[in-house]
Structures are given as structure tokens and as C-alpha cells.
Amino acid sequence: MVGVSETTEPEDNEVTAVLTAPEEWRAFLERYGELYVKVRADEEELAALLDDDQLEALDREERVEPWLGEAPAGEEALVASEERLGVRFPPSVRGFFLASDGWTHLEDWVDGVHPCGRVVWMRDSEAGGRVTETYASIPGNEDDVRLFRRSIEIARGEDFWLLDPTDVGPDGEWAAYEFAPKYGDTTKYPSFSALFHSGYASMAEDEDEEDMD
Fold it and tell me: pLDDT digits over 80-111, tens only?
């Protein structure tokens, strides 16, 4: 349903230290993959993500550490993407791509983070352009439309992950948004790192609830 949306802020406990170094991202993404297969992946996903030994280990409730990302992007590929878009990515985004050039499984309704060569202005992507035009046709969505037109689409599925290069914090990080077109909900985060961490925090909460049952 398309209509006037409301931008919300995450709770304080969803915001953690900004990851900027590739080594920091690598360690975090390894933990993310471990938690994802434990809490979120269905049987079909598990069969695709894990080998037989890992599946058996998971059944025994042993630790499994799959890598759900890609090979690191090279500096040349990263710079080429920045030049194509006419921006320099903030530190957390650069660190992420230098650890993994994309990501295939995410929490909620986002399929994955684009490789740096496929990151695009939302207004220029097929789905993003369609959403922008639809929202622009309905009075009351002016703030959202302006956000869409100035933002970079870094991840997409049913929902979008957006980065706003016009909203830069003192640490050089761009404001990041999770946008759900179906409901018109926009949630703002202080950085790409904080947005990524929100999904991890959600899975961790569900794991704690399962452990209590």
C-alpha cells in the first residue's frame, strides 16, 4: 500500500560501533553467517549453503561458520564504482566491500547487498525508478520522493537499503535507510554499518527467545 510514510529512528541499543576496517567487517560477517543459518535459514537454504558435514554439525547443535558473502572487491573496482556514481563511499561502505563484494542473505525482506559494480542511484534502477514514480504521483509523499531521488540503492529485495550522500555525520558516515514500499515505512540509521547491525540484533534477540523456551 502506497501512501504518506513515516520515518522512524532505531532504538539506541540497535546502534553499535561503526565498522570501517575490512578485518572488522570480516569478523562481523562471519558471526552474521553463523547466526543466520542457526536462526533464519529454512531447510532449502541450509541445503544450498552448507555441505553434508556442516549440516550434520548443525543437527548436533555444534558451531557452523558459513561464508555468505563474496570475495573482497579490489581497490580498483571500488574506485571505478565511486567514479561511476560521482561519490566517494563512506568508511563503513568501503570497509564492507573490501571484505566482501556483496552479500547474499540478509535479515527481513532484503535479498542481499549489491556488488560494488552494481550499486546504483535508486532513481536509475528499474525497481527504484518505478517506486519513485509511483510515490511522486501521490500527494503527501514529497519528502520520500526527494530521499529516493538523492539516494544510492545498495541493497534490494522486497524492501530497499538506501544511502543518502547529502546527510553526512561527523565521522564521515552517510545516513542509511531501510524502506518498505509495501507499507510506506522508512527507518533511518546513522550509517550503513548500523543498518547492517540491526538485522544481526534482530536475529540475536530471536536466538535468546529460543534458548529461553
Answer: 999 999 999 999 999 999 999 999 888 668 98
Q: Which three cell numbers stand for residue 100?
A: 566482501
- How far, in Å, CA of 207 to CA of 32, rounded? 12
Q: Which of 88, 125, 111, 108 is nearest to 199 (CA)?
A: 108
**Which pLDDT score is estimated for 12?**
42
What does each C-alpha distance from 41 to 57, 80, 97 come to in angstroms? Answer: 15, 34, 24
Q: What does the pLDDT read at residue 168? A: 98
Which residue has cell 562481523?
28
pLDDT of residue 152: 98
The C-alpha torsion from 25 through 27 and 31 to 32, rounded to 10°, is: 10
Report how far apart, in Å, the C-alpha atoms of 184 and of each of 3, 7, 136, 156, 162 are.
Answer: 6, 9, 13, 15, 14
Phi, psi of 185, deg, nearest 5: -95, 135
Residue 111, Cα to own-chain centre: how many angstroms? 9
Please list the ranges in the chain whose pLDDT falls under 70: 1-16, 107-108, 209-213
Bridge-based pairing of strands 120-121 and 160-168 is unpaired
151 Rama sector, left if φ>0, alpha if ψ -120 to 50, beta otherwise: beta
